[in-house]
Amino acid sequence: MDVMLFSNGKLPGNTQLLEFGLDWIEAMVKRTGAKNFVFIPYAMIRGDYQERTEQLQAGLGKFGCKVTNIESADDQVKALQEADGILVSGGNTWVLNKMLHDKGLVGPLRQAVLQQDKPYIGWSAGTNIAAPTMCTTNDMPIVSAAILTSLNFVPFQINPHYIEATMEGHMGETRDERIEEYLLMNPHQVVAGIPEGTLLHIQDGKLSYSAANGKPMKLFANKQEPQYFEAGSDIQFLMERGC
């Protein structure tokens, strides 16, 4: 399994999608030999699928890759089977997870990544769905979607776009408080909060954490003080947890 889970798609000052992660992606392409990527855009609500496909083509095209929008395929399961790798966009996790289930793509995606070792690159919502469930998404449930189980590539929950902040005058829950609530209801789980510009990478069962901006990962567990992990820290214990 070779899976890259980015917190987000852009950093301030970036002009290109996944610009801050292109060196990591280039290394993946060279390592796996993947050239033909299928792009799953279903999390996007306010953007154009084909325009996003072209943005990704501009970035990955530098490495000799071709990016195809899965919406252009007559048979989307076959498109996954024939692709060398998979790209999954950020956006609304509720919409993404619902559409993957509705279109019968969850099983084929798991087979492609877990059994056929096809590289997977997700960001934001595309990272959320790599966890056992999408329960730690930041997104509003803008569609009727009762199914919370997702791709389960990793045995822990992920909170992309994690920000450790409070806003003056804001009386709602902070991100930490929302995660604390989740853990009180799901005490067996842990949540990895990954800030902007960071990456969780699973390669051959080994988990690593990288940051383009030096920000640490924050790990939450029920009724415990959160732990911070810098880029390069040993976080393999997270992969050894039971789901």
UniProtKB/TrEMBL annotation:
<dbReference type="InterPro" id="IPR005320">
    <property type="entry name" value="Peptidase_S51"/>
</dbReference>
<dbReference type="GO" id="GO:0016805">
    <property type="term" value="F:dipeptidase activity"/>
</dbReference>
<dbReference type="Pfam" id="PF03575">
    <property type="entry name" value="Peptidase_S51"/>
</dbReference>
<keyword id="KW-0224">Dipeptidase</keyword>
<comment type="similarity">
    <text>Belongs to the peptidase S51 family.</text>
</comment>
<dbReference type="GO" id="GO:0006508">
    <property type="term" value="P:proteolysis"/>
</dbReference>
<keyword id="KW-0378">Hydrolase</keyword>
<dbReference type="GO" id="GO:0008236">
    <property type="term" value="F:serine-type peptidase activity"/>
</dbReference>
<protein>
    <submittedName>
        <fullName>Dipeptidase PepE</fullName>
        <ecNumber>3.4.13.21</ecNumber>
    </submittedName>
</protein>
<keyword id="KW-0720">Serine protease</keyword>
<keyword id="KW-0645">Protease</keyword>
<dbReference type="InterPro" id="IPR029062">
    <property type="entry name" value="Class_I_gatase-like"/>
</dbReference>
